[in-house]
Design goal:
Length: 127
Amino acid sequence: MMNALPPLHDGHAPFTLQQLFREALYAFEEWDSELTEPIVTYEGRVIPIGFVFEAMRECTDIVPMNIVGAVTERLTKPWEGEGPLDQMTFSTAARVMRVLVRKRLLANGTVDLVAVSAHAAEDQSRD
């Protein structure tokens, strides 16, 4: 599934992947009581938001301030950046959001279901 998304280039994400990250963040914000992980679409493919966040784990691009606010408002502790302007990278934002997705799935009791689905998808792709 990860190879369905555009790759990073020397730590930089193509604009399409940055846009997909934003869509995944919005999908997380709208995630109410459904048990399953929200999805986004990329080039006609359905992608769980956790895969988008995982794809951005190594991205060194700086996150726009409106996205920083959407990420930090979900934290239980104040966030302080290491840069001179407290800038956040997509890597940091992606790691935070990936943890939040996993926590939500664990709270809903659906983490095992998602893991089985991902494993089944890998098996099918080998056939």
